[in-house]
Amino acid sequence: MSGGRLPxxxxxxxxxxxxxxxxxxxxxxxxxxxxxxxAMLPRRRYTRAFEPGCSLGIVTxxxxxxxxxxxxxxxxxxxLAAATTRLSQYPNVELRRWALGDPWPDEQxxxxxxSEICYYLYRQALRxxxxxxxxxxxxxxxxxxxxxxxxxxxxxxTGDEAHEVIAATPGLSRLAGYRDxxxxxxxxxxxxxxARSVAxxxxxxx
Length: 206
Known about the structure:
Layout: H1 8-17, H2 28-40, E1 46-51, H3 58-64, E2 67-74, H4 77-86, E3 93-97, E4 109-115, H5 123-136, E5 137-148, H6 159-167, E6 172-179, E7 183-190, H7 198-201
Parallel strand pairs: 1-2, 1-4, 2-3, 4-5
Antiparallel strand pairs: 5-7, 6-7
């Protein structure tokens, strides 16, 4: 364990065994999940997004179409190499080696995407990491969390447990959620200002 999370070698071993160990490129489940992820974003466009644990850069590529600039990170050199190739056509994407639980970058974002990453941390490490994430969000900014709900024996937390920790983070207000047997997706807003629905922000309701 490094800094309260699974060791970096866990991910190195995963990518040594397969260039796409979670089947991000070929599984319909993953393609559907990406579509759900984009649909959960309450704003049409963001200025500056942060995506820890970008893996092969598949979600990153879709975020690049909705954001002026995307900072995407991973702890695995193999994953970053694959993401570099995939994202070479996106000049608004910046890749870095960094993992959730490391000291947070001294930057502000209006979107943070935590996709399939929070359950790699132990609860006592996830809480302060999320406080750092909330502080890195601009007022009114969006935090989107997406996690697998089935038990994985190697992971310190389940997806539902990770979302319980996120929901309990001071300064985050839940905007929306989707949940089925396999996956949970939730969006949160840094408050203040008061959280508003998509229709309210678009002037359709008071």
